[in-house]
Amino acid sequence: MENLSGSQGLLASSEIVSVRGESMLAYPKGRHQSLRSMPFAATVCVPVWNEEAVLGRALASLVAQTFRDFAIVIVDNASGDSSHRLAREFADQHANAVVYQNGQPMGRSALWSRCVDLSFGDFTKLLEAPDYLLPSFMAQAMETMRADPEIALLRCSSAVLREGQLIETPAFAGPRSMTGPSALVHALTSSSFVGPPSAHLMRRSAIDLRGLRFRSDLAFAAAMELALQLFVCGDFCYINEPLMVFDEGVQRPFNQCGARTSFRDECEARLSVLRKGNLPLPPRTLIRTLNRLAMLFEEYSPRAEDEGQEPEIERDYAAGVTELSSLLQKAVHNLPATRGAANSEVAALLAAAEREAKARRFPEAEAQLRQILAVAPCHSVALGDLGRVRFARADMDGARKYFLSALAVDPELELWPAEIEAIR
């Protein structure tokens, strides 16, 4: 085992750096600062904890990327195997790589946050050591993110490596983009489409806007919780190509989570963003979120009973329902006169947008609709009308984004056949 008290040779070629008030060993000496002085577009962070058997594969997939304008930050969590040595050897061969080592192990999501602390550039990515990327991941993700500065979180489809076979696991039937609030509603009220962090690329400015990090108290749903918080800051985009491979055969910490912990974390990820997001979500969304909690309870409770955790998961469910019901009460009864005035203003803006659209003054119509979304970001009619404006302007990607966003907020929203065809 090599750690902060290791060989004199290692210490001589390394340096101690301070990260959020904690000391870490950085290798090689001088690269911690020199990489930050270079204009890298992104940082790919590789957290590793006793994963010598798979680390080389993950790092090789980074070397194989067709887009190369990124730094590689390897964060070793005080591994007891040869992971740190392998990481150092990689850094010796690649000038865009630096290796950090914790003095003591920390939890999985805390390690992810440490990676975010150490990242720089306009975009941040995590790649867990058991996973690997296909060569075009960074090229496609960066091109998409640069083309639309409103995207806060991008996710690609992924494949699962199971007994030597690659099995595609798409989150959607095709490529998809949604406004942040619409993606948030979709995530709150349905099964999670967020996926593993290795499939993500995050915009650093969105992370910094609200000082976001992975919550160290969420063993199962830390990546989901951070994604939901990012949807408050910006939009979501999904690339329907399996550009990341998740190795199912490697044991991971969240595999050890019991049913009660998994359920509690999924509930807390949703409740956390509702507490902090300050988004004016409609009561219907909170009702649908209550329904989702009930479905999660039905899913996890049989396993919890087998694990002897039935009373605990029932208490967790009751606590989640109580808090969410309180939020629903506030949404329904909060300042009805003000809401009435706001509804009147929205109706006037919708009517004005319709007139502008009929006169084919599309920029003016879009401006009216964006005024609505500025105060009511989950207004399904405004989202749908914005999709129609984009459709009329032959902007099919924009039309698809806003039609899908409208349907995420209100699955019963009616679209014309040609509009339905646009989102297929």
N- to C-terminal distance: 54 Å
Write the H/E string, N to C: HEEHEHEHEHEEHEEEHEHHEHHHHHHHH
Strand content: 15-25%
Largest sheet report: 12 strands, mixed
Q: Which outline best applies?
A: globular
Give the helix proportion (percent range): 40-55%
Query: Pairing-aware structural class of the strands and helices?
Result: alpha/beta
The total of beta strands comes to 12
What is the typical, i.e. mean, pLDDT? 91
Number of helical segments?
A: 17
Radius of gyration: 23 Å
Question: Would you summarize the structure shown here?
Answer:
52% of the residues lie in helices and 17% in strands. The chain is built from 17 helices and twelve strands.
